[in-house]
Amino acid sequence: DAGGETETVAVNLRETVEDIVAMTAPLMRERSVTVELALDLVPPVRCERSLAHQLVLNLLLNANDALNETPRDRRRIRLQLRDDRRAVRLIVSDSGPGIDPTILPHLFDPFVTTKPSGHAGLGLAASRASIAHFGGRIEGRNDPAGGAVFEVALAVAPDQPADAARSPEHAVDLKDRHV
Question: Is the Cβ–Cβ distance between 16 and 81 less than 8 Å?
Answer without folding.
Answer: no
